[in-house]
Amino acid sequence: MGDATLTDTYVAALQHDLADLPPDATLVGVVRSPTPWFHAAVDENVPELGPPADVLESIRQTEDELKMQGLCEEGAHNAAWEQVEFGEQYRRHLEDSTEAQSALESLADRLASGESLALVCYENTEKKRCHRTILRDRLEERTGN
Fold this sequence. Notes:
globular; alpha/beta; 4-stranded parallel sheet; 53% helix; DUF488 domain-containing protein
């Protein structure tokens, strides 16, 4: 893989200059339906690697219900992640979707050719679980890094 690095961060860290990334890293958003301001923070977005819309909606509904029961935002998010089996559903998406497989292969090829990549989403993984950590693991498995 040469000098290429694979890292990840969240968009607020980029916006507030808190992300510790290699200076040459291409910022690759992995968001299904990004906001216009998200596009301004990244070099590109690969929506095929975002979680499927139905899974996102399921976690949102469950998170809202848990917040109504008194859980804080982070607690509700992480509990909803478990309840809807978000990780398992996202891994299945990466395995079953030809578009996701193609996008994964493209990123793996770019890493293999020496390009440094930073995966970007919305969640601060110090507080909330995020699909990009699963995605990063998959890319590391493919590239042997």
